[in-house]
Amino acid sequence: MPETNASEMQVKMLAELVGIPIDDAEVPEVANRFTSLMQELDRLRDLDLEGIEPVAIFPDTGE
User: Fold this and answer.
1) Would you say residue 16 has pLDDT above 60?
2) How far apart are CA 37 and CA 39, in angstroms?
3) What is the pLDDT of residue 4?
4) Among 49, 45, 47, 34, which Cα is nearest to 4's?
5) 27-45 vs 8-18: helix crossing angle, rounded to 10
């Protein structure tokens, strides 16, 4: 499984690249949450989806 721990420096750089302002005091919490999210995505990557067809789901727009 690939490394999914996000450093505070990586979070700052990513936030700057996408234009999201993050206070320095918030960086540790954002890094922790980002790491948790990436770990959950890794778990999805490990699922055996052989033979499962994709399904397009469109939200009801109420029109």
Assistant:
1) yes
2) 5
3) 63
4) 34
5) 90
State the residue for tokens 């397009």.
56
Q: Which two tokens stand for residue 31?
A: 């890094």
Q: How many residues does the chain have?
A: 63
- In DSSP notation, 3-60 reads --PPPHHHHHHHHHHHT----GGGHHHHHHHHHHHHHHHHHHHTS--TTPPP------
Average predicted confidence (pLDDT) for the chain: 87
- List CB contacts of 17: < 8 A, sequence separation 6 or more: none
Q: CA-to-CA distance for 12 and 18, rounded, in angstroms? A: 10
Its pTM stands at 0.64
